[in-house]
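The data layer described in this paper is built around a simple, fixed record for each protein. Such a record has a labelled line for the sequence and another for the backbone structure tokens. For reference, a complete record is included directly beneath this paragraph.
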Amino acid sequence: MLDLLLPQRCLLCLVPGAQVCDGCTAALRRIEAPLCERCGAPTAWPVQRCAECAGRRLAFARARAALAYDDRLRPVVAAWKERGLRRLAAWAAAVLRESLPRPDAACVVFVAGDPDRKLQRGHHAAERLANELAALWELPVRTFLTRARGSPRQRGLARHERRRNVADAFLAHDRVPSRVVLVDDVYTTGATANAAASALRKGGARTVEVVTFARTIRIR
């Protein structure tokens, strides 16, 4: 009924139809090889560690993302997270399935959200993405992670501030399987993914693979 009263339009080109039309989806920048083997950042040639992750102690085995988080994609992610367009999670999961192979993991875990922000938004983007993606990959979703404490938003913080902001922010409860895939919406500096992966490792995981819908590409 709502679609009849307010016809849905593509968020990018405003053509009536899907929230992001096929043409605009195809035009979004994919993250493709060569990549850093560890953090998944695009590189000039394949490397084990890049300038972005070299010298850091990373709790995850590797991170991969489907799309570059650039000016074209940013309003779509904002609509998804801040404006409550929850159906974008299914679209994002479909893009991920087309872009990345199914991980060799026992289950999917999502980065636990801040309870206050989830209450304000009415949903948690990472959780909805994890559920949609797990269904496509035919993997179970497990809620092993919880927030040990609230933390200020990461937006606008410098890299070292982001790491400090989420240090020890997560706890893993129950016994975590040996291999898990950790899902979040956007990889910016990797601070949140690393803190969540660290908690999963403490809970028993031996290998944590991070999968995000998008990631920030740093210009050097």
Summary: Strands lie at 62-68, 107-110, 145-147, 170-172, 179-187, 207-215. The radius of gyration is 17 Å. Residues 1-5 have pLDDT under 50 and may be disordered.
